[in-house]
Prior knowledge:
The protein is an alpha+beta fold.
Amino acid sequence: MNSNQLLPTRNYLAYALITLVMVGVMLAWQAWKSTENFREYHQQLAVTSVTGAADELELQLSELQRSMQLFANDHRALLEDIATDTRNEATWVLLENAVQNYFPEYFGLTLTNAAGEVLRPYFESTVGELCQQDIHTFIHDGYSQQGYIHPNPLGYHFDVMVPWGDPDKPQGVFFLGFFPDILARTLQRIQLPGHTLLLLRNDTVDLIEVTSQGTRTDLQRDFRLSGDELARILYSRSLTNSRWDLVDLPDPQLFRSEAARNATHAAIIFFAFAAVGLLMLQQLRRKEERRLQAEARALQHQADLAHVDRINIMGEMASGLAHELNQPLTAISTYCQAGLRIIAAADDKPEKLIHALEQASNQAQRAGEIIRRMRRFTGKGVVRRKPMDINGIIKNAVSFVEAELNRKDIKLILELADKLPAAVADEVQIEQVILNLLHNAIEAMFSGGDNTRILRVS
Length: 458
């Protein structure tokens, strides 16, 4: 099978490789596009989640402040009594009980005068410097508060402040501290699977204040976001009246897992397509091989038919030649025999002339015999089985190739057994078999590298 015959198979392979490359590119693009769509979808979810949680937290802080203002207005007389006599334990207990009824999750309370001086600390120790600073800032800013988390040995908390007393001229500040759990529950309820809602300090950007688990002290990690985490934030929004930014931070494996899943699906589809393509290519290759074999058989059959035609033509030509040459050869032989009889009757017998005439007669008879054998060999006669001499048939067959053996310098060695029994067969068919064997042997000699060529027939 030459290169031209393999060309269709090579074309199929080239087409298959081009198709696989195109399919691979399309699948890779589809996997990337699916991952991007997944990212955009979660981006929209983050916007929705942060917006909803921010609105609810702002409402929650606003409602706390409104409720405290109503409480301060309703209990103004009690607050004035405490401000008048800060050592009166009974009035302070009444205030604590009332706050407990209205705000069961409060952490601590503080009451100040109009100058921001603490009238009575809630805990045994004095109010911390940070809280006192926030009170003065609250009064200085026109009773506007920016909430944030306060560290405290007893618990992290955030404060909510309202003025108390005369609305036109407040008599002081009433504020309560709350544990961040009320904020954490809101975050936990709204945040989505695979996402984390965080309250960050907007003046430090990366400091975590509150998560769905509580304050940063409840986290088993660093209190600050890493650079990678800051880069992963999908959406953020500042909360009004606070120092907080609410952000949505997706899990680190959210998009990686989706990308890996899409890549795996694409790879499965690609290898399945490749396997089907290879099977189809194999089938096409086998079909192509069968086609080439069929063409080769058809060509061989045509060659065989042409050979048979040539043999038939040779047979007809041999018959014609035999008919045309047989009479001249017979005449030559007859004239030679006549010449020999004339010389035999004469007194003078030249030996050389006798020998020449005998040789001429023998060669004419031999030529006639060769022509008869060729005519018989190429004829279209029916199969005739009869007893025959195997050695004679072999010698007849060898006589057909003697000229070729001499021309190709091949030495012939006949090793024939004597007194072989006669075999019953068709003489022409046996000669054809022996001739084929002889021709095959001659052709095989020239395919090797040995210069010594001997044809042994035994």
